[in-house]
Design goal:
heterodimer; A: about 160 residues; alpha+beta; Ubiquitin-like (UB roll); DNA polymerase, domain 1; 5 helices; about 35% helix; elongated; B: about 725 residues; Aldehyde Oxidoreductase, domain 4; 7-stranded mixed sheet; 6-stranded mixed sheet; 30 strands; binds FE2/S2 (inorganic) cluster
C-alpha cells in the first residue's frame, strides 16, 4: 500500500511502485486533468508539481515520491500564482484545443513561484519542454507576463475591424 | 431528477441550402432544475429563468466552432451572451446536417443557417407575444432576451418559450436578418466557452471519459502498413499484472480495423506494460520496397522524363524557348505526421441492443458508419458522443481508432477505453504525402511570366493519387501565366496518407511560391512588385465563382496591405537578416505573408516575425479566436519546416516527439495579424493562413544569406553546408 499526498489529501493506493504517477492520477484516482501526450518526457502535457517543482508525471514512478506533496491542475487554484495564471489564461483567451494547457499552467505557475517577473529569456527556458501543438505560444507568453504584473501588448482584438 | 418535456422545432438544412423546420416532441431529464425548459428549435432551448441553451453542431478541435456557431444563433435571437449555455450536439446528421471539422468549412457553410436558426426562434417568440396581445409582429422589438411591445409591455423569452414552441415555424429564408452594423455579438470577441473548464482540468476531452466497470486497452499492430499477423504467443501477456484479457483481431479495412492484438487491463498502464511481453510474428513482405531512399531515387529518374499531362494552356514549350529569362528547379517535401496533442482514443460499450461510443473525432457520423460496418450491425443502433478533441489537424477525419475500440469492447464484453501510445499515433498516422517537383518557367522581355511547367511526382495507391495529394493547387504562377502545362508521374505506395491542415496547399505553396521568388529575383524584380504586376494584368479575370475561382483583386488587396504593414519597401537586409513574401489562396481564404528571419553562419535559423494579412470575407465572427487561428497556423507552418517522416521497409522511422522537431516557445515568432474585409461572405480560418508562411520563410532565408531553399525539412546541417558552398 502506498500513501500519496495529492492536492493536500492523503490517498491510499494499491499499485506497483513502478506505475508512473500519470496513470495513478488518471486511472486510479480519476483525476483526468493531467494529460498524456508522449509518455517519454518530451511534451510536458503531464506536468504536475511535487513539492512545488514541475515534474513529468509520465516518467515519475509513484513508488519514489514518498512524502512529496503532489499538486495537479485540479489543485492549482489553491496556489496564489496558480490562480493568477488561470485568470490570465482566461483573460487573454489563450486556449485553442486546450489539451496541453494543464501542463502549461503547471509549468508557468512553478516559473512564477521561482521568478515573480520572468523576462522573455526566462519564459523561453522554463516553457521549452511544454509542447503546444496548436502553437498558442504567443498568448502563453503574454499571459505569463500579465499574471506577473508585467505590461502586455494585447493585440487580440486589433486587426479585425474594417 | 425531474423529467421535462422538450418541444423541438425540427430543423435541418435542405439540399438547396434552405432550412427545414418542423416540430418534434421528446422527453429529457434535467439534473439541476432550471424550471421548465422549452426547446424552440433543435438548436435552442430556453428555460423559464432566461437561461438559453444553444447547440454547437460540429466537433470542436481547437478551431473555436463550439463558441462561434452558437454566437451566430445568439446574435439573431437577441440574447445576452452571459445567459447562453452551450452544449455539443448529438452526432445525428438527420437533425443537424453534415457535422464535421474539416476544410475550414464551418463558417462558410453555417454563417447563414445558424443566423436563420436564431432568427426563426426569435420570430416564434415574437409570434407568441403577438398572440397574447393580439398584435402584429411590427409592434414588437427584442433585446437581451426580452420581447417588448411598443406600449412598453415586455415579456421575458423564458415566459414565452413554451407557447412559442407550439407555433408553426416560419420559413427561415424569408426572415430578415440583422444589418451587420447592428451586430452585438458577431465581430466582438467571445472567449472560448470551455476555457474555464480547461484551466481547472475538468474531464472534457475524449481521453477523459470514465464509465463504471470500464477497462483499458492497447492495440498492437504491425508498424508495416498492410502487414498480416501470422502468429503470437499470448500467454505471458495474459498472465501479467492487471491484465484481464489478450486476444487477436482480424483486420478488415485499411481505414478501420487492422490485424492486431488487443490487451485489456484494469489500468491503461498495465495494458501498455504487458505489450513488451508480446512478440508477434508478422508477414511484412508487403513493405519491403517502401522506403524513402527508394522513393527519392525513383522520383529523380521520373523527373528526368516527361510526365502524364493533366492540364495545359497554350504552348508552354514554345513560350519557354522564346523566353528572355528561364528557370528550372527541383523541389521536394517530405511526408509529415499530424501528431495532435491528444493521442487517438475511444471509449466503447457494445451490447446487443446498442453501441455507445465516446470519441474525439472530426467526422462523428462517418465514425458511426464505420463502426456499424466493422461490427456488422445497423448504424441506427450506434450512438456517438462527440468529445472535445485535443487537436485534429485532419488526423481525426479518419476513425480507425473508433473501429478498434468497438471491436475490442465487443469481444471484451465490458466498457473499454482504447488509448494509443504516442508511438502508435506516429506509426499509424495517415501521413501528409511527400512529393517531388520539377518546375520550369520563362519570363519574357517585358518582365512577364510567359511559360510555366510543373512536373510532380505523386504517390498513388492502386494507381490513383493518394488521399491528401493533388497534382496542382492554386499556385499563383499557374493562374497567371499564359502558357502552362501541368504533368505528373506516379510512385505506388503502401503508406497510408491523409489530410493534414491545409492539405495539398501546405506542400504546393512551398514549391510554387518559393519558385515564384526565384523567378522574380532572376528577372531582376521585387517579389511583391512582380506579383502585383501579374495580379493587375488579370484583375478582371475573376470568374465569379466565389468558392472555386482565384480572385486577383482580393489577393492584390492583401498583398498591398502586407507590404505596408511589414515595412517591405524600407526593409533592411544583410547581416544574416532578411524578409521574404509569399501568397496563397486556399480554403476560400486569401493570405499574403511576410516573414523576417535571422540566419547565422552555423546554419541556425529563426523566424523573428511574421506579418499575416488575410481576406476571409466581409465579417470576422469571433476576433480573438480568429487571430488565434492565424497565429497558430503561421507557427504550425514554420514548425512543419523542421519535421519529416521517413520510411524504411514500409514502416515509419520516427516514433515520438524526440524524433519530430516541433515548434516550441523559444522558436515562436512574433505574429502580426490583419484582416482585410471584402464584400464576400465569411469563410473559415483553420487552414488558409498556413500555406504561405512556409515559402515566405524560405524566401526570407534567401534574402538573409543567399541560399535558395528547395527542400524540406530545413535542417541546420543542410543550411550550414549550403552557406559554406555559397561562400566558396
Ligand atoms: S506525457 Fe509526459 S511529457 Fe509527454
Ligand atoms: S492548445 Fe492545443 S495543444 Fe496547446
Amino acid at each position: 500500500m502506498i500513501t500519496l499526498s495529492v492536492n493536500g489529501q492523503p490517498r491510499q493506493l494499491k499499485v506497483p511502485d513502478e506505475m508512473p504517477l500519470l496513470w495513478v492520477l488518471r486511472d486510479e484516482l480519476d483525476l483526468k486533468g493531467t494529460k498524456f501526450g508522449c509518455g517519454v518526457a518530451q511534451c510536458g502535457a503531464c506536468t504536475v508539481h511535487i513539492d512545488g517543482e514541475p515534474v513529468r508525471a509520465c516518467i515519475t514512478p509513484v513508488g519514489g515520491i514518498g512524502d512529496g506533496k503532489v499538486v495537479t491542475i485540479e489543485g492549482i487554484a489553491g496556489n496564489r500564482q496558480g490562480r493568477a495564471i488561470q485568470e490570465a489564461w482566461l483573460e487573454l483567451d489563450v486556449i485553442q484545443c486546450g489539451y496541453c494547457q494543464a501542463g502549461q499552467i503547471m509549468t508557468a505557475t512553478a516559473l512564477l513561484t521561482q521568478n515573480p517577473t520572468p523576462d522573455d529569456a526566462a519564459i523561453d527556458v522554463a516553457m521549452e519542454g511544454n509542447l503546444c501543438r496548436c502553437a498558442t505560444y504567443k498568448r502563453i507568453r503574454a499571459a505569463i507576463k500579465s499574471a506577473s504584473g508585467q505590461p502586455v501588448d494585447d493585440t487580440r482584438n486589433r486587426g479585425t475591424e474594417a | 431528477m425531474e423529467t421535462t418535456r422538450r418541444l423541438f422545432l425540427k430543423s435541418g438544412v435542405l439540399a438547396g441550402g434552405g432550412l427545414l423546420l418542423g416540430f418534434g416532441l421528446s422527453a429529457c431529464t434535467e439534473k439541476d432544475d432550471p424550471g421548465p425548459v422549452t426547446a424552440v428549435t433543435d438548436y435552442v432551448a430556453i428555460s423559464s429563468d432566461g437561461i438559453v441553451t444553444l447547440i454547437a453542431k460540429n466537433p470542436e478541435i481547437g478551431q473555436g466552432v463550439m463558441t462561434s456557431l452558437p454566437m451566430l444563433i445568439a446574435e439573431e435571437l437577441d440574447v445576452l451572451w452571459a445567459n447562453v449555455r452551450i452544449e455539443t450536439a448529438a452526432s445525428d446528421d438527420k437533425r443537424f446536417g453534415a457535422q464535421f471539422a474539416g476544410g475550414s468549412m464551418a463558417t462558410a457553410l453555417e454563417y447563414m443557417p445558424m443566423r436563420q436558426v436564431g432568427a426563426a426562434a426569435r420570430w416564434l417568440l415574437i409570434e407568441a407575444a403577438a398572440r397574447r396581445m393580439k398584435a402584429t409582429h411590427d409592434a414588437f422589438t427584442t433585446k437581451a432576451g426580452k420581447v417588448r411591445h411598443k406600449d412598453g409591455t415586455t415579456f421575458d423569452y423564458g415566459e414565452l418559450a413554451a407557447e412559442a414552441a407550439l407555433l408553426a415555424p416560419p420559413d427561415p429564408t424569408k426572415l430578415t436578418l440583422k444589418d451587420p452594423k447592428n451586430f452585438l455579438l458577431i465581430g466582438k470577441t467571445q472567449k472560448g466557452y470551455d476555457n474555464p473548464k480547461i484551466v481547472r482540468g475538468e474531464p472534457i476531452f475524449g481521453i477523459d471519459v470514465s464509465l463504471p466497470g470500464m477497462l483499458y486497452a492497447v492495440y498492437l499492430k504491425s508498424p508495416v502498413y498492410g502487414a498480416r499477423l501470422i502468429s503470437c504467443d499470448l500467454s505471458a501477456a495474459k498472465a501479467a499484472n492487471g491484465v484481464k484479457d489478450v486476444f487477436v483481431l482480424k483486420g478488415t479495412d485499411m481505414h478501420g480495423l487492422k490485424d492486431g492484438i488487443a490487451i485489456v487491463a484494469t489500468s491503461w498502464w498495465y495494458a501498455q506494460a504487458a505489450r513488451a511481453l508480446l512478440s508477434p510474428v508478422w508477414d511484412e513482405a508487403v513493405g519491403k520496397l517502401h522506403d524513402s531512399e527508394i522513393y527519392s531515387q525513383t522520383a529523380k529518374t521520373l523527373l528526368l522524363g516527361e510526365g502524364e499531362v493533366k492540364e495545359k494552356r497554350g504552348n508552354a514549350d514554345a513560350a519557354l524557348r522564346s523566353a528572355t529569362h528561364t528557370f528550372d528547379a527541383e523541389y521536394n517535401v517530405p511526408f509529415l505526421a499530424h501528431v495532435p496533442m491528444e493521442p487517438q482514443n475511444c471509449t466503447a460499450v457494445v451490447k446487443a441492443e446498442g453501441v455507445e461510443i465516446w470519441a474525439p473525432t472530426q467526422q462523428p457520423n462517418d465514425g458511426k458508419a464505420l463502426i456499424a460496418k466493422t461490427l456488422s450491425i445497423d448504424p441506427a443502433i450506434v450512438t456517438v458522443h462527440m468529445r472535445r478533441c485535443g487537436g485534429g489537424f485532419g488526423r481525426r477525419l479518419e476513425n480507425d481508432y473508433m473501429a478498434e475500440a468497438a471491436a475490442i469492447a465487443q469481444k471484451a464484453g465490458a466498457p473499454v477505453k482504447l488509448v494509443w501510445a504516442r508511438e502508435d499515433d506516429v506509426a499509424h498516422d495517415f501521413f501528409r504525402p511527400g512529393g517531388y517537383y520539377r518546375v520550369r518557367a520563362g519570363v519574357d522581355a517585358s518582365g512577364k511570366l510567359a511559360a510555366y511547367i510543373s512536373h510532380s511526382v505523386n504517390f498513388t495507391r492502386e494507381g490513383k493519387i493518394v488521399q491528401g495529394d493533388e497534382v496542382a493547387g492554386n499556385a499563383f504562377a499557374l493562374t497567371v501565366a499564359p502558357h502552362t502545362r501541368i504533368e505528373f508521374s506516379k510512385i505506388e505506395t503502401t503508406i497510408p496518407t491523409g489530410y493534414l491542415r491545409a492539405p495539398v496547399s501546405n506542400a504546393l505553396a512551398f514549391v510554387h511560391e518559393t519558385f515564384c521568388d526565384e523567378i522574380a529575383h532572376g528577372a531582376g524584380q521585387d517579389p511583391i512588385a512582380f506579383r502585383l504586376a501579374h495580379l493587375n494584368a488579370h484583375i478582371d479575370d475573376y470568374n465569379g465563382d466565389r468558392f472555386g475561382g482565384y480572385n486577383p483583386s482580393r489577393m492584390r488587396a492583401v498583398l498591398k496591405t502586407v507590404e505596408e504593414r511589414s515595412g517591405w519597401r524600407s526593409r533592411a537586409s544583410g547581416k544574416g537578416e532578411g524578409m521574404g513574401v509569399a501568397t496563397y489562396f486556399s480554403h476560400h481564404g486569401y493570405f499574403a505573408e511576410v516573414a523576417k528571419v535571422r540566419v547565422t553562419d552555423d546554419g541556425k535559423w529563426r523566424v523573428l516575425k511574421v506579418w499575416a494579412v488575410g481576406d476571409v470575407g466581409n465579417q470576422i465572427v469571433n476576433p480573438s479566436a480568429a487571430k488565434n487561428q492565424v497565429e497558430g497556423a503561421v507557427m504550425d507552418g514554420i514548425g512543419s519546416m523542421s519535421a519529416e517522416i521517413t520510411f524504411s521497409k514500409g514502416r515509419a522511422v520516427q516514433t515520438n516527439f524526440q524524433d519530430i522537431p516541433m515548434m516550441r516557445m523559444p522558436q515562436a515568432p512574433e505574429v502580426d495579424v490583419q484582416f482585410v474585409l471584402s464584400e464576400f461572405p465569411p469563410t473559415g480560418l483553420g487552414e488558409p493562413a498556413l500555406p504561405p508562411v512556409i515559402p515566405a520563410v524560405a524566401n526570407a532565408i534567401f534574402a538573409a544569406c543567399g541560399v535558395r531553399l528547395r527542400q524540406l525539412p530545413l535542417t541546420e546541417q543542410d543550411l550550414r553546408a549550403a552557406i559554406d558552398t555559397a561562400r566558396t
